[in-house]
Amino acid sequence: MSSLRRLYYDLFSKIYDFIIRHHSRDIEGSLRTFITENTNLSKGDRALDICTGTGSVAAKLAGQVGENGLVVGLDFSRGMLEKAREKAFRLNLKQLHLVQAYADQLPFKNSSFSGVTCSHAFYELKGEERTIAIDEVARVLRTDGRFCLMEHAKPHKRIPRLLFYVRLFFLGSKDAKKFLGEEESILGKRFKNVAGQMSPTGQSKLISAEKGG
Ligand SMILES: C[S@@+](CC[C@H](N)C(=O)[O-])C[C@H]1O[C@@H](n2cnc3c(N)ncnc32)[C@H](O)[C@@H]1O
Asked: pLDDT per residue over 27-60, tens digit each?
């Protein structure tokens, strides 16, 4: 099943940025700026973006941590990572590194990162995968490091809401609908200072959470 999803994303990677720009009307990348600004990262920090896709959030994080920092963009799709690599090259982001791996098997030592982000992907993780991924994020974060999770908000209008449920049906996990309403309490079991807010576009919500001592 996950190899089918990987294949889907390998193919989707060719048109992903184009579709996202038009679907979300997020031409200026304001959503990506919104998530990275909430990470509280400083110059020289190390950050991880899981399910990085074409690396849009990772590229913003790279700007935030600067040339002396380090950002890892992690994804299981080779196609997505190739697009992310092109982006890093085009923007001359030498501090951005790309790794092919699964979100529930992070190939990093404990407490490696000051911040971890995940944008519009966590609801897709199946079954135990999501629970283990949350534990993995907590493991690789340093104490007081911040996890910023951005997910789709349920659209108010009828047609977009229908399309949203169609997407959940095909791409989300069985409990994706439930997860998308309960992110804060789920993260609250593993993290402290969990807080949610709507994005300026009104189409996404951001949950930030910190690792306790
Ligand atoms: C909807 S895209 C989001 C991409 C990016 N975060 C963004 O906001 O544009 C979901 C991404 O998650 C990746 N993905 C899905 N399940 C994964 C898993 N179990 N491990 C690693 N990556 C995964 C897919 O390959 C895809 O690139």
From this structure: 557 889 999 999 999 999 999 999 999 999 999 9
Look up the domain containing 130 and give its range.
2-210
Does any ligand 1 atom lie closer than 6 A to the CB of residue 9? yes
Q: How far apart are the C-alpha atoms of 71 and 112, rounded to whole Å?
A: 11
Distance (Å, rounded) from C-alpha 102 to C-alpha 74? 8
Q: Is the CB of 168 under 6 A from ligand 1?
A: no
Q: Give the Å distance between the CA of 150 and the centre of ligand 1.
A: 12
139-163 pLDDT, tens digit each: 999 999 999 999 988 888 888 788 8
Pairing state between β 46-50 and 113-119? parallel
Q: Is 39 helix (H, G, I), strand (E, B) or coil?
A: coil
Name the residue at shortest CA distance from atom 23 of ligand 1: 51
Is residue 49 classed as helix, strand or coil in its secondary structure?
strand
Question: What pTM does this model have?
Answer: 0.93
Helix (H) / strand (E) containing 108: none
**34 within 8 A of 26, measured Cβ to Cβ:** no
Question: Cα–Cα distance between 149 and 184 in angstroms, integer?
Answer: 10
Q: Judge contact between 13 and 83, C-beta under 8 A.
A: yes
* CATH number of the domain encompassing residue 81: 3.40.50.150
Question: Do residues 177 and 117 lie in contact, with contact meaning Cβ atoms separated by under 8 Å?
Answer: no
**Is the CB–ligand 1 distance for residue 53 below 6 Å?**
yes
